[in-house]
Design brief:
The chain is mainly beta. It is globular and about 40 Å long. 0% of the residues lie in helices and 55% in strands.
Length: 115
Amino acid sequence: QVQLVESGGGLVQPGGSLRLSCAASGSIFSRNVMGWYRQAPGKERELVATITSGGTTNYADAVNRRFTISRDNAENTVYLQMNSLKPEDTAVYYCNLKVVLLKYWGKGTLVTVSS
């Protein structure tokens, strides 16, 4: 059984920064894709960024050049550094782990960008 635990959310002013972390535990195949998705109130869950176990990254246009995804394979941890935050970045951020056809989700961490 795989578990994902996110941390690092909170309240930040526009233009500020936050760093999210997600630690994965359990039986994890070494070749996988980890990522972050977000869901704002009244909207569908959307992709933020993904990173393969080999380090290849992919970003949504809305966060490109502001957010950086990284991972520590030895610790099965993925990070999301969020800079220049905007009110429209307010959402619950979910960690995701994909192994072949299996997908696992964390419970989410709330990020609120407001003055």
